[in-house]
Design a protein that fits this description.
mainly alpha
Length: about 130
């Protein structure tokens, strides 16, 4: 019997969706993560896997929350998250590529979803897309 999993939400809990983030894009990224998460067998959900999920989830939250930040700290957090996500490093166990590999996530697909999200958000800020 398959255990039901709650959807992963990459938005900050307690915070409203920013007016420039499309709800559909947030749902699509969340749905993607849920599809990938459901591939894990119950026996594999030990501490290391949960830690990897937590790192990935928090980095994606940080990336989205600080995109277009105006503060130095926000810009630094976004830049660090961006570098981690777009790095091809496989030499470190907790690199983006390694985590995606271990968790069975298509890292290129996730990057494409983030790029699509950024593009839509930029267009919304320029008034080209109505939210």
């Amino acid at each position: 019997k398959r255990q039901e999993l709650e959807p992963m939400n990459f938005r900050v809990e307690g915070a409203e969706t920013p007016p420039t983030a499309t709800p559909g894009m947030v749902r699509r990224i969340s749905r993607f993560a849920l599809e990938q998460r459901s591939r894990l067998r119950d026996a594999e959900r030990d501490g290391v896997y949960r830690l990897m999920w937590a790192i990935l989830k928090e980095t994606l939250r940080c990336y989205q929350r600080n995109y277009g930040a105006r503060t130095v700290q926000g810009q630094r957090l976004f830049r660090d998250a961006h570098r981690w996500i777009y790095s091809d490093d496989l030499s470190w166990l907790f690199s983006f590529e390694s985590i995606c590999l271990v968790l069975g996530i298509d890292s290129d697909r996730l990057r494409r979803e983030l790029s699509r999200w950024r593009h839509l958000r930029d267009r919304a800020e320029q008034g080209q897309v109505r939210m």
